[in-house]
Amino acid sequence: MIRFSVLASSSRGNATVISGGGTHVLVDTGISALRIRKGLAECGLHDSEISGVFFTHEHQDHVCGLGVLSKKRALNLYCSRYLAKDLRGMAPNGVFTYVEPGQAVQVGALSVTPFCVSHDAADPLGYVFECEGVRLGYVTDTGIIMREMPAMLAGVQGLYLESNYDPEMLENSGRTPDLIRRISGRWGHLSNGQACDFIRTIGHPGLQHLVLAHISPECNTPAKATAAMRATLDELRLPTQLHCARMAERLDWIELGITRVPKFEY
Ligand SMILES: [Zn+2]
Ligand SMILES: [Zn+2]
Q: φ, ψ for residue 188 (rounded to 5)?
């Protein structure tokens, strides 16, 4: 079994705790250390119980809490080699493990496989977390769905998926044309429609839980993102439970178990 709780998520900050077989890891530390510790405590965990922290990329909304969080104790940090250059300054006592796309690393009971995403960062990654045959996909901060992603994420029981912006709200947000192009371009973020299209590609009856994440506070609303995905899940007749992660409140533990559904082939 795998379970996970999104401590916070939006364009302003992101952190998630994932547990499997008694091993607990964090993905990103993009909120204050205080909030991370508070969120972990609400989950019944202490930060000393965290076996590792996986990073997607170096943007502040994914790393900003690391400096304070790593002051008290040396953390095991998992990231790409390029990202480590940035993180070393924030966490001089961190114990770094470099990860490579397609190469699984084992942290206690969890096997974690990184994959490439498309974002304006040094070497951004998504992840698949696996424990005893149960898998959770983690896809955020990517302007497009990369060719390898459907195969990497085929058959996952849980998916954390960016649904960053509504194109009309982005267009009318008062942002500069350059910034609008950056957000909606291939190195930017997934729109609600792109997130739905991805579920049309990899959605399957064994997908138990889908969490919409990294919602832009100015260019999207949880209601818009959820309505678009709800319609897509209904259209596909999938029994998947839909959740929307928020910045201000923690999304409580979501549990994933084995499903006896044949793996889709792509
Ligand atoms: Zn981000
Ligand atoms: Zn980013």
A: -105, -115
